[in-house]
Amino acid sequence: MMRRVERVRLGLIAGSVLLLVVLAGLFGYARYRAGKAWIARLKTRSGASFEQEADNVTYSQSLRGRTVFTLRAAKRFSHANGISTLHNVVITFYGSDDRVDRVYGNEFEWDENGGIARAVGEVQMDLQVPSGVVVTPRHGTPATAGSGSSANSIHVRTSGLVFVRKLGVAATSEQIEFHYGGLTCIAKGAEFNNNPSSLHLLADVQMNGVLRGAPVELRAAKADFDRVSNVATFATPVLTTADRKARAQSAVLHLRRDGSAERAEAVGDVVLDAATLHVGAPRLDAALGEKNEPQTARLSGGVRMVDDDAARPARGEAAEMRMRFDALGRPAEVTAIGGAHVLAREVGAKGVWLEREMRGEQMVAAFHAEGVGKPMVQQVHAKGAASMRGDSLVKAVGSRVAGIKSTSVTGDDLVVSFVESAAKRVRPDRLHGQGHTVLRQTAALGEEHTSSGDALDAVFAAEGGGRQFDVASATQVGHVVMSSRAALKAGAKKAADVSTGNAERAAYDGEKFSLSGNVHLEDAGTSVAADFVEFNQGSGDAEAHGSVAATLLGNGANVSQATHVVAQQAFLHKLTQVAEFDGGLEKPARLWQSASQVEAAHIVVDRQRNTLVARPGADAGAVHSVFASESAKAAGASRAPSILRVESRQLDYSDQQREAVFAGPVRIDGTLGEVRGQRTTVFFVPAAKSSSKSSGGNSARIAGGLMGGSLDHVVVAGDVKLDQSGRHGTGEQLVYKAADASFVLTGTPGAPPHIVDAQQGSVTGAALLFRAGDSTIVVTGATAVGEQRAHTETHVRQKAK
What is the pLDDT of residue 791? Predict the structure, then answer.
């Protein structure tokens, strides 16, 4: 994109050359041609005389003892009417600075009474250039009188010259021609005014030749030179050199006394063309050095740039553009002010058009050149509502182009550095932004990633293939806020979920965002706070570390019930909807939903399958679970259980089966007492079925969500031990039913269930039925193999209250 800036400066240099060329030609011509007017003025003064010595006539004029000019003619013919004819005339002018100018003519008519001199035929002049100005002789022509330019003179040719002594004006309507610095100037008509000293080229001004090794042509409707103020003015000048052209309605050159251009101004539809590049503005101001090299330039009044290159079109605009040049006249710095904007397009692979764009209230471009090489843009600094945007190609499998990825950066202040690519083209290398920075990347499949912060540092991809504007890495600090939407999957009916987050610092490596400092991330029903979060913008996966606090929303009817988790680290997989939480031995991960909770070193939640897995961190570790139920009375029972605390080695929950399985040595504690076993399964009924009508008002309801619904029954198996107030039982399996708060304790034929009451004795049977807090135990079945089946009901007397 910044290649356009370099091409713009070529046009500006062309404009400076135009002004320089015009300056040189007119200065020499005007300054010395004006000497011709002195003849009439000196002729009227006393002390002038003609002397005839043979065929020679000499006329001279002195002032204060110094000869001002002399006129010599080979022959003089006087006429009765006061008209004299002079042949083979040489007029020599002597300046106060030791300058010597000469005018040659074969024939002059002199009207002494009217003070008018007319040249008959061609007139030639050799004008000495000012000190410090070097003139290249035309085609190496020797410096002979009247034959051409020497190293310190300019040769002028014209005809029909008329001098009016009273007016101090010499004029001709014929063609005037002179050579200067390898250039030839031709005009139609000229006027020389002695007071004030000025020169006017009246029409069809043309200059052409070679300047700095390149062909140059200048055309203007007319040109004027004020010798007193050293100012040259051109009407509708057009300068052409190689493939560059500059034009304006008028141009003004301010000259030094040595004839070099000091300052140039062009106004009115100023246009600079360089090949396919066109730059226009109402006004151009330029300053030049003593060797006519450009030093500064300023385009103002609304600058417009258009490049109609078929392969790389571009356009730009600004209220004003300023340029600073190095000692060799090459651009060192370009400043665009007031709504600066540049947009360039380029054909990439498969004919895909890629855009590059930059904006700012002010844009400053710095250039660098090695030795005498061409300058290359090194840095661009955009200030005030600054933005930079570019496209890159995104490839699918193989080399097939899948679409365009657009990257944009905005901020109060952006600084972009550039380097030369392997293909010898300028590409962005690094970017630094300050103040309200925003980095945004979008792709054709709906992928969009945005981050904002106080400051931004980015590195662009170095590889080619249309990816030179792709961000390889970036770091953003200060109140960072980000959002990310993954690409649409094939056949997707709705847009992908948007992930959002905030932190104090975000680092991007081209694929992942690393967030640190008070991090908070939200994605598709998941909210995570942590010290550090690594987020994959492609997959949507996240990894959190340090003081992790997460909130998960379940699927289905219970999405309103949130599950909360605290842990040391978490791994969130977006595609599978699996969340893994890890803690330590001293500080395990803890998950809770309403008043129910699970605590373990490792907890895995699968929200697609609605499953939960909890594991300890060591063989001797434990999983602690708490299930809270509503307080509800059950038929025939004094009170339904309200708290169910479980300690186990493992926990596996499946919402599809509506069951939680606890393995390893299991210990259950709560209102129903303390129960131990090797395996426990807790069964639930869906929340929709847990109303008073479906359960007879006797179900203990667990909070909805991942482990939602109501508690239906609990089965404890393997070496069961039961301890309740005043009661101890053993068996192989214990079944608890929440509907009526009843227990069934069973054993094996060799080890039947057994309950011991501390005050009333023991009870044994094939199965023992009882309720928590009830004194009744129902014994069913025989106690040994082969015995008759029996039903026994035992009433245990309770202590008087």
Answer: 43
